[in-house]
Amino acid sequence: MSVLALCLASVAVAQEVDSTGSTLAQPVRKPLELAWEQTEVGDFSKTVSYVHQRNADVMYYHTIWRTIDLREKMNHPLYFPQETRGTWRSLGQVIFDAIDVNHPERPQDSVLPVYTDEFCTMYQDREAVQAALSETKVIDLMDEETFEIIGQQELHENYEAKQILQYRVKEIWFFDKKRSVMEVRILEIEPMIQVEREVGGQGAPIPGQEEQEEEDVQTVKAWKRLGFIMYDELRPYLVKQEMYNPKNNAQRLSLDDVLTWKREFSSFIYQEQNTYNDRQIYEYIANARDQRIESERITEKIRSFEHDLWEF
Fold first, then answer.
1. pLDDT, position 9
2. I want to staple 237 with a disulfide (CB 3.0 to 4.6 A). Which of 98, 141, 157, 299 is the partner?
3. Distance between CA 160 and CA 79 in Å, rounded?
4. What does pTM read for this prediction?
């Protein structure tokens, strides 16, 4: 009996207890993903700082807004995996975990802040962020025998990271006359969540009948905005997340490497800094094909500025 009691006591000591008093949620080791020991050499720890930029050295800059669509094949490494698997997380899941709306009691300065405007001047409170990441639907309750509607019930649903299908990015391109280079810095990023909305409308009247009895309900897809995130505040979370490298997975890449330095993603410009301040391309060009041509024209305009400075 004394030996058995000693064994049970040692097991109890070995278990870790979390804040809720449960020992079931504690992992016993790091996720098993490799057949060898992964050393800490080259581990992602902190972001690589930008080169110090003097305002006097900026002889030209242009601000643009672009859309990163995760449905494009080149952007799939940012979208998958849809669910967390071991140490692998998508860009959307990294943002969700950094915001951490599941613990509203945490102070604002301990989580990734979300702003109400694109200039990142005003914080969005935790309740507003939690409301933006959830939706309340009203469903009808029916009697099981008569199939009559006897009431309504509210159904609360939380959005998932896999529902983020687009990111809107604001960035600034500038030319440094001292170093003779054209560089780009991302200023803020805005996740766009795709949701389904039910649109009901009275159907077309049937000849001989004054009005339609049944309502024609259609399901349409819409975009819901989460809020604006300052990119420099997001980078410390991106640099700690390893991303799948389609070319060679042994060559480790972080999300910060892909977005900040290598810029290995596909996107298109939907707005540039202009006289009208906030006019987007679709407001003065209706055709989708011509909108894409206008996007390429803006890209070429920025590229040509640097090219024209050189003499051959």
1. 46
2. 98
3. 12
4. 0.80
Say which amino acid occupies 212: Q
Residue 193 near residue 163, CB atoms below 8 Å: yes
Both tokens of residue 56?
């006097």
Whole-angstrom Cα distance, residue 264 to residue 203?
47
Q: How many CB atoms lie within 10 A of CB 133?
A: 22
Of 167, 166, 168, 170, which is closest to residue 64 (Cα–Cα)?
170
- How many whole angstroms separate alpha carbon 114 and alpha carbon 230? 8
Rounded CA separation 164/89 (Å): 13
Helices (H), the chain: 2-14, 76-79, 91-99, 126-132, 231-238, 255-256, 281-284, 288-308
What pLDDT does 250 receive? Answer: 82
Residue 124 neighbours by CB distance under 10 Å: 20
How far apart, in Å, do the first and last CA atoms of the chain sit? 91
SS3 assignment, position 252 = coil
Q: Show Cβ contacts of residue 90 under 8 Å, excluding neighbours closer than 6 positions.
A: 78, 79, 80, 81, 82, 161, 162
Cα gap 219→148, rounded to integer Å: 23
Residue 95 phi, psi (nearest 5): -65, -45
Q: With a cut of 50, list the residues of the chain below it in pLDDT.
A: 1-4, 6-24, 41, 203-214
Tokens of 223: 């975009």
Residue 249 makes CB contacts below 8 A (sequence gap 6+) with none
pLDDT score, position 23:
44
Q: Distance (Å, rounded) from C-alpha 96 to C-alpha 165?
A: 14
Residue 256: φ, ψ to 5°: -70, -40
Whether the bond into 81 is cis, omega within 30 of 0: yes
Q: Read out DSSP for 179-239?
A: TTEEEEEEEEEEEEEEEEEEEEEEPPPPTT-SS-SSEEEEEEEEEEE--BEEHHHHHHHHT
Q: Running DSSP on this structure, what letter comes out for residue 259?
A: I
